[in-house]
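Figure S7 source data.
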Amino acid sequence: MARIISQILLLCFAMVSTAMGETGEQLYLDNCSICHGNEGQGGVGIPLALSSFLNQAPDEYIQRTIRYGRPGRVMPAFTHLDDKQIKLISQFVASWRKGPSPVWDETPIKGNPQKGEALYKQYCISCHHAKGQGGQGTGLKFSRPKELPISAPGIGNNGFLHSATDQMIKQVAMHGRKGTPMPSAIRDLGLKESQVDDIVSYLRSLQKPLKSTQQKLDEEPPVLVYDSDYSLKETVANLERAAVGMNFRLIRNQALDYGFVEAEKESTHEEIVFFCNFNFLYEALKLDPRIGMFLPCRITAVERNGKVQVMSINPKRLSHFFNNSELDQACEQMHDTYTSIMEDATL
Ligand code: HEC
Ligand code: HEC
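Tokens for the predicted heme C complex:
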């Protein structure tokens, strides 16, 4: 008995001590190291331990970046971490810095955004792409060439613009980042300081109000539903015809409770139509293998009290889990396909 009690006490102690001992390092290892490397050396994510980065990036910038992420790019918004945890992580990242944090200076820069746009197109677009959307090829499709250490970040990205001050953007552009492909606009590109101000004003003009991922998610219903005036059997036949009409191959149909009950007891009030377009499938899998969890495409037809409905998952809602802009496009295409098939079948 005494042994059991002492074991329970030990267990409680272990639980309390891990809860109390949540360190910035542990949080970093749990949430960030997979992309930024155990020692901030970089990987899928930008290197964070470089002094040329840390001497430009105030702690506040690091905290906001963790909070807002880079919507549509690989860097997630860490909505599940609270302010205290985010602070601990940023302190841990800042511990790689030799000196103090650069000052957080919100003094706006007033350049000429039209001139800035022209300069951006001439000097920055080759790496940061149109409207600062950032280089392609980071992320989960493993397509980044090995010799390209860093893909240029999205500097017109709303998450970046809400995290960085004008002064910080100017510092990075003026001095570049030693140890990365990011050049100095003054030294390497021969620009004047006033021209850098113009570019900063152009980038700032791309900023939009912040919308949380959760908010965007809430606007998309999780399931797409349409009423059908046809019988269940007719509705299923309509779905099949509509899917084939949109270049899909029918794979199989099955009762919703298939596998859960004996065949003769399967419900005749629900039927799932599985279909697939192999070109789309291969393209989507190349973008992100996790999309395989939601394929092949399926639409369910259900009859309740004589009323027939067709429904599918909403691919747009799914795409928010991935935070990958190319996959967002694929999911949007899937969403439009699902809605046309269901509209067609119930018309
Ligand atoms: C799934 C991969 C991934 C994870 C996880 C991740 N990041 Fe990132 N992070 C990136 C990528 C990729 C970028 C570059 C953003 C871009 O391309 O626009 C980035 C950018 C950043 C930046 C901006 C760097 C700069 O040069 O200004 C900071 C700061 C950052 N991440 C910190 C973190 C921290 C701290 C965590 C953990 C809480 C984290 N990241 C987790 C992929 C990731
Ligand atoms: C040769 C490619 C290249 C060119 C040209 C280039 N950049 Fe960059 N830029 C990068 C890379 C790569 C990074 C990421 C550096 C790192 O790892 O910290 C970067 C980072 C930045 C950042 C910091 C973003 C962040 O997430 O912290 C800013 C701001 C920036 N660049 C602005 C500009 C501007 C303005 C120009 C044009 C005057 C420009 N860049 C031209 C490659 C380039």
